[in-house]
Specification:
The structure is a single chain. With 172 residues, this protein is mainly alpha-helical. Helix content is 42%, strand content 8%. The strands form two sheets. The protein has a three-stranded parallel sheet with strand order 4-3-5, with helices on one face. A two-stranded antiparallel sheet has the order 1-2. A hairpin with a 6-residue loop joins strand 1 and strand 2.
Length: 172
């Protein structure tokens, strides 16, 4: 397992994502799958210059698995939300907030946005689009790789298992 050093903590962050079984509601809509893939590509490009803030180490691992290579900061790093927000505001002119959309994630998002003087609103659409595309299937960033795997595989056209019948009998 490879590790990625955390910017705010001594603990290494595992790069291998956790496996999370997706629900049956994750398959089916090829348009949503394409939009989700495009959003992840856009996030990957933005992350080359702008740090992403997530809740914990499993979220970091999930985003690394999806291809993000830039700075990913964990909110749960032993600091209060206020101290973390102040530190971020002093270090970065802009950030992308990708906190989970479960009840706790929404609370943390609200608390952190009150603390940040840095620009986060410009990239808020990314989290909102993720919520719109994934809300019925998942509620956390760490579940994204499993969802992407299911959505990607469900949009591919599989070859037929048996060749179509021609109505002829095979010759002896």
């Amino acid at each position: 397992m490879s590790v990625q050093p955390s910017l705010f903590g001594p603990d290494p962050v595992p790069v291998n994502p956790p496996s999370s079984p997706p629900t049956s509601t994750t398959t089916g809509d090829p348009l949503a799958a394409a939009r989700l893939q495009g959003l992840i590509r856009e996030l990957t490009l933005l992350n080359e210059e702008i740090p992403v803030i997530v809740e914990g180490r499993r979220d970091v691992a999930a985003l690394r698995h999806l291809g993000l290579t830039g700075a990913i900061l964990t909110l749960h790093c032993g600091q209060t939300v206020a101290a973390f927000g102040e530190r971020i505001a002093h270090r970065f002119p802009a950030v992308i907030l990708l906190l989970d959309w479960d009840r706790r994630g929404r609370q943390l998002h609200t608390q952190l946005t009150r603390q940040l003087d840095t620009d986060w609103e410009e990239y808020h659409y990314i989290r909102q689009e993720l919520i719109a595309l994934c809300q019925s299937a998942i509620s956390s960033i760490e579940e994204l790789p499993a969802l992407m795997a299911v959505r990607t595989s469900s949009t591919r056209t599989a070859p037929p298992r048996n060749p179509p019948a021609t109505g002829r009998r095979p010759s002896p």
